[in-house]
User: Fold this.
Amino acid sequence: MTSKTKTKKPRKATKAKPNHKGLLIVVEGVDGSGKSTQLEMLQNWLNANGFATVKTEWTSSETIRPLIKKIKKSETIVSPETFSLLGLADFAERYQKIIAPALSAGKIVLCDRYIYTAYARDTSRGLDLPWVEHLYSFAPKPDLAFYFHVKPEVAISRKINMPKFYEAGADLNLHPNIKKSFCIFQKRVINAYLGLAKKEGLTVVDGETEICVTFPKVQHIVAKAIQDKFKIKLL
Amino acid sequence: MPTAIKTKIRPGKLIVIEGIDGAGKTTVIRKLKKRLRSKGHKVILSEWRESPTIGGYLKQLGEEGVKLCPHAFSALHAADFADRVHREITPALDRGDIVICDRYFYTEIVRDAGLNMDSKWSEGLFPFAPKPDLIVYIDISLNTSLARVRKRIKRNGKPGSLNKTLQNTTGSLIGSLDSTTGIMINSKYTEDGDPMTDIEREKIKFGFQLITRKKYDELFKKEKNVAQIDGEKGRNTVFTHSLAAIKNALR
Assistant:
């Protein structure tokens, strides 16, 4: 068995440039950063301009989602590795059944969270980044990746409901108080995102600024990518 | 964290039993467990696809005939394995028990190879797994494997009663094939909708086992703690040889 040597020398995370016919656009960021809202606006805009779009959200596969939901709801504590691999199973299903077919059909695929969510969350649970990168190595890099950044205080202040167990990182024994645990975990995830944004060259969008200011910028970047890929002028 | 698990020296002993379908793993494990317990050892058994959190769901998917894509299938089995490492295997090793694993992550790697997946990917999934003190690899020929599986299917019901057969071949490679590639090994029809004969079914099975056996060979050549046992010999011989290897590992 070579796993020992394999894991000591993790493969390089850099992936080949996307060579699919379609366009893969992803948004990343913690809850309350405004990413989902802007992705929806983006989809409406693209659809109105006659583009075929497909949207997919994190842990939304038909086959794996029920299991993840059950574990989260029942607050069953699983190890970070287990939790990570469950997220991977869900992603693999969506990648094979939704993302890849749409990309080869030349569609625009909009992902509400992509591999960077796993990178940020799993490393915040103490796992090694090279391992997590390896898990997702079958997935292509997106054509465009937006990271919606908000400061931890802002993300926390935008959270109205009681944080859920895994959302708060309560599986990690960070703090007996779930709200405090949530704050600690959010900080970790945001820090991880910041590191990733730099390393992976994600486009940082200020999630604290009004949408009417940031959305046109997002549109502009998307329009340019569309022009490069499909030779169609949008703006 | 994976590295911590890997390097930590634990008082228990980890014994892994591997081999293709029909090798006689379950039979020898039953005897080994009994013998070791009678000698006063604390023994726990951890079986493939049997975690309390994920195992049931995996079986349910199989019963419902849900097809997972190969990567998802592997990831879900790896999650099941990770859950058992966390819940059963590591705690028992920490207590100083003997842990016998009916299949280990090698099963996943050889299965993935059988499905022509990228082996580098599969081999990199398991850095968190504790290193076995001994791998008992029961090797049998493909013909023996097929003959035994055929017998098992006969005993457990006709190919029509797929679920029963799948359940009885715990974590079996038949089941894996079934829900990943879409090659319905136990189904009545081929992908084109033509009736599938037993011979066709066995052809697929044969091709798959051929690759997995080769992959086992390749994996275990690189490992140090492997006792390769000839599974063609009678079950008593397989038992005696396995027991001798374990005694040696316990020393």
